[in-house]
């Protein structure tokens, strides 16, 4: 286990170095997005246009050695444009038969760009793929390549032409990664290095097969009982009717068991990312916001008073119960 972890650490260091040559600053965004992939899940990147969300996803596909496809979500996009469809063929004898033509979802890394600019019906086309890793078209099951990850970018809902994602689909994302504006020095480097004659290009650091090996290693990492109890305490305290007075007053509905599963996997991945062989309660506190914020909703009264979902989560994460 220790030898495997040391080898994985070296590979993770190579991944971080390769990404840093293209993406400047935004260390926390890169870390959380990588944690989602290393945990075997999907990530939702939320931020205004122009913050290199798409470039980060493209870079990760190259660095991780994954086959990737991009879907630009637009209001007129249809589910068949994502999943594929059956077309009718006719052979030389005149016999007709249906043939399945796969859509762009059949890849190892799917970039769903501006996912909330398509209708909820089209957004929901990814539900089965993200949870069960296969799609059903015309009653036939079609398995997706392994590994399979969806990295979606989303514009703030306050912008024109956006639709809120269905709650069921939000729950399929392991993490929601908020992408802020870059720091001054990082933005200075962006100005200098992306407006010249040559721009940095990502290079592969590992293969898809090696990625699956690291994902399997993360699932084998031991989790102390104290960390398991902290995850249970945090997730359950975020649900109304489970003994937390502030949650009862401000939260309309809270996270389900899938949030605890996400926390367990991401806590393991974060420990390995930091060079540790087991997660700690600090990992749980650090991951509370990206794991929970898209799995909870505030009451109308709480929103009217200016309460934010991040404030509620921060209060829960700081609780002595963890």
Automatic annotation (TrEMBL):
Domain ATPase AAA-3 stretches: 42-175
ChlI/MoxR AAA lid domain boundaries: 245-308
Any Pfam family hit: AAA_3
Protein name according to UniProt: MoxR family ATPase
Species this chain originates from: Pseudohoeflea coraliihabitans
